[in-house]
Amino acid sequence: MDRIGVYPGTFDPITLGHLDIIRRGAHLVDRLVIGVTTNPSKEPMFAIGERIHMVRREVADMPGSIAVVEFDSLLMDFAEGQGAAMIIRGLRAVADFEYEFQMAGMNQQLNDDIETVFLMADVSLQPIASRLVKEIARYGGAIDKFVTPAVAADVKRHLESGAGA
What we know:
Radius of gyration: 16 Å
Number of helices: 6
CATH architecture: 3-Layer(aba) Sandwich
Mean pLDDT: 91
Low-confidence stretches: none
Number of strands: 5
């Protein structure tokens, strides 16, 4: 039986930090399912379809079996539906750890057959957060150190159209 992992997030937009966790997480499982969630509380810049397209484009050439799937449900329900043995989460800082530790505990209460695995972000990528990337871009700053060229172009195009202002 294949070992399936789920890496959930809003990916708004997908950053080099996300891609690092995806690359490394794909080595831990036979199949990695990237769950792109709606999470309207985060006021996304990109619609769910745009984010799914971006993530699929960015992972297309990565080795391993990687799927990109939309979800709008409890994470544990989504993970169970995917047949996941683990949830993969990236950690950048102490603040991430406190939130993720609490979430992992709650998720364990919902289903203790699915493990949460934390991967530390690469040191060079630790400060990157989608929220900050969007803020830098909105003020005209360069985001090319934080996202791929294609994602930087997506963000620029989005801001120029007035949709993400």
